Amino acid sequence: MRFLLGTLFALSALLLGGCQQESGDAHKGVVNATDAKPIEWKLVTSWPKNFPGLGMAPERFAELVTQMSNGRLVVKVYGAGELMPAFEVFDAVSQGTVQMGHSAAYYWKGKVPAAQFFTSIPFGLNAQEMNGWLTYGGGMELWQEVYQPFGIMPLAGGNTGVQMGGWFNKEINSMADLQGLKMRLPGLGGEVLRKAGGVPVTLPGRELYTALQTGAIDATEWVGPFNDLAFGLHKAAKFYYYPGWHEPGTTLEFLVNQQAFDALPADLQAIVKVAAKAINQDMLDEYTTRHIAALESLVNEHGVVIKQFPDEVMAQLAVLSKQVIAEQSTQDATMKKVYDAYIDYEAGVRKYHLISEDAYSRFRQ
Fold it and tell me: At 301, is the secondary structure helix, strand, or coil?
């Protein structure tokens, strides 16, 4: 009996040891899988490194991707000027020099006129409406179609909401005050200013303060109180105008090199898309909140004069905007296709919002 018990004990120990060995081997395989060399991507932006709002969106995106992928996909962010100038992001992603970029689509109007609709157009969709159009109204499919020839996959990468009208060194009392006005104003808004007799200028954000202070430009728009305070624009101009007729719902973009994206396994592709969607909403939430304290600081601590554009000026700019957008859309077949889809969606959402969002805002006032 003692011999039999000893034999059973020995067999049990052997079997248990084998199970533990198999378990250890299996665990070792998992560890080896997670310890595999991570995929490394470079993401270049059109913003200063870690700049509030705009510059933090790609940083937060990179953090999310690393966390959700458990370190399998690592994205390193470079601010404007670190690897390349602010306005070379599109080409860098298209050529595969880097895997990703974060910028604004209207900067590429010279090579992709239709891209302007995917940032913001004068008197166009607001942030909520842009998100609706892109996600469920067919806008994203059009955006992908527009960028496909360049080997780029676009993703919405944030929204500033309705922007401010800009900083001016003189008051705007009539359309006559726009004659000869040199203003940093990108996209179709700049073309509307040109038609009104002004001179649109395109400058990266980090050059705005100096250009305004030295008189190289007479006015500039950037985003709104949160970013404008950070740039110190209140030190270079006296009058702060509203509303931002030129950018009523500015969508930012993540540009993804299509080949690099296709090379990822399916789960990492999903992580990239989901992280971008999270950042798209996060930016709008942050701007909505941060603008409040920043505006109070500009007015109460720095004595900034807040002024509304005269009704006459707004009405004339609205007329000119329709003319400019319609004229430019006839010059490019792709732009015309996007334009038709955009205004069709805008007509529907405007009709609905007249009895919902707009109606509520009127009664709340």
Answer: coil
SS3 of 255, please? Answer: strand
DSSP letters, 33-53, are HHTSPPEEEEEEESS-TT-TT
Q: Are 2 and 60 spatial neighbours (Cβ–Cβ below 8 Å)? A: no
pLDDT of residue 36: 83
Residue 101 burial (CB count, 10 A): 28
Find out whether 244 and 185 touch, Cβ atoms under 8 Å: no
Task: Collect the ranges in the chain with pLDDT lower than 50.
Answer: 1-33
Which two tokens mark 260?
A: 């690099």
pLDDT score, position 26: 36
Distance CA 6, CA 240 (A): 91
Angle at 341 between CA 339 and CA 346, to 5 degrees: 90
Cα separation, 191 vs 180, in Å, equals 13
pLDDT digits (tens, 9 = 90+) for 174-215: 999 999 999 999 999 999 999 999 999 999 998 999 999 999
Inter-residue contact 106 to 119 (CB < 8 Å): yes
Q: What is the pLDDT of residue 35?
A: 64
61: Cβ contacts below 8 Å, ≥ 6 apart: 43, 75, 102, 157, 254, 275, 276, 279
Name the DSSP letter for residue 79.
-
Quick one: residue 306, left, alpha or beta (phi over 0 = left, psi -120 to 50 = alpha)? Answer: beta
Nearest-angstrom CA–CA distance, 340 and 324:
14
Question: Facing residues of 241 across strands?
Answer: 166, 307
- For residue 63, the surrounding DSSP H or E stretch is helix 56-68
Q: Which two tokens stand for residue 218?
A: 């007479």
* CA–CA dist 79, 155 (Å, integer): 19
- Quote the pTM value: 0.88
Contact status, residue 189 vs residue 122, Cβ threshold 8 Å: yes
How many angstroms separate the CA atoms of 283 and 115, rounded? Answer: 21
pLDDT computed for residue 118 by the predictor: 98
Provide the Cα torsion 178, 180, 184, 188; round to 10°: 70
